[in-house]
Design goal:
Blueprint: E1 3-4, E2 10-11, H1 15-27, E3 42-47, E4 50-59, E5 62-69, H2 98-102, E6 106-112, E7 115-123, E8 127-132, H3 142-150, E9 160-168, E10 171-178, E11 182-184, H4 188-200, E12 207-212, E13 215-220, E14 228-232
Parallel strand pairs: 8-9, 10-12
Antiparallel strand pairs: 1-2, 3-4, 4-5, 5-14, 6-7, 7-8, 9-10, 10-11, 12-13, 13-14
């Protein structure tokens, strides 16, 4: 699977795109499966970020929900990538969990217009910069800050930017500014990055629901292996592209 943003750039990974593509491929018999009568099926999808495993959940012979293994999070500055000319730091000592010791999460402070934003940085096959906020995120001017952060020199290949409010140990609300697109209703890789950072900082547990404007995505990560993304899928419309 390849995915292109609205500005023509190609994204390395897209969790929601993988889920939608899985439904499309299964229901149009593009892949071989043993049964479409209630049995879950798995198949492998090649992306620029690597092989991703998709698992389907069926309702009335249609794919109603998909779980995607999104790979392991990446924390090394050169692999995210992040410019190491900027001052970076790791987590606060009071959040120094076992997972954090094994996977030190990089952070930085970035001055944007009138705000000093604390960002946590990682890659889910594509780069993410996450800002946890104590207050509501509804009125945050994401359209003002998003494009500036996306193209800051700190990020050689630009970045996705997430603003986040932790509600409790198992739920988070978020908004996402995506590279090459702008604010979107939902972002699968962004939801995974949020869940990883939140767990490493001690805010949430292994399983967490990410509440986005487009709906809820469920993320599972044990602090060691691959991040699992699960959510519903619905066909909205179909058409033909005339060449």
């Amino acid at each position: 699977m390849r995915i292109f943003n609205s500005d023509g750039s190609e994204a390395e990974a897209c969790g929601n795109g993988l889920r939608c593509f899985t439904k499309y491929a299964i229901e149009r018999n593009m892949v071989t499966t043993k049964s479409l009568q209630g049995e879950n099926t798995c198949f492998r999808i090649e992306t620029l970020a690597g092989i991703r495993i998709a698992k389907t959940y069926m309702t009335d012979k249609l794919v109603s929900q998909v779980e995607v293994s999104m790979g392991k999070p990446v924390f090394q500055a050169e692999e995210i990538p992040i410019s190491t000319t900027h001052k970076l730091y790791t987590n606060d000592l009071q959040h120094n969990t076992i997972e954090m010791k094994q996977n030190p999460l990089l952070g930085c402070s970035l001055s944007v217009m009138d705000k000093e934003l604390r960002l946590w940085l990682l890659s889910m096959g594509n780069p993410h910069a996450i800002n946890f906020r104590p207050q509501t995120i509804v009125n945050f001017p994401l359209s003002d800050y998003g494009p500036i952060i996306e193209k800051d020199p700190l990020f050689p290949r630009h970045t996705n930017f997430e603003i986040v409010k932790v509600l409790d140990k198992n739920s988070i609300e978020a908004r996402v500014w995506e590279r090459g697109v702008g604010e979107t209703l939902s972002c699968g890789s962004g939801a995974c990055a949020i869940a990883v950072a939140s767990k490493l900082l001690g805010y949430t547990e292994d399983n967490v629901d990410i509440i986005l404007n487009g709906g809820i995505l469920s993320i599972s990560w044990d602090g060691i292996g691959e991040v699992k993304l699960t959510g519903p899928v619905n066909e909205v419309f179909s058409g033909e592209y005339l060449i």
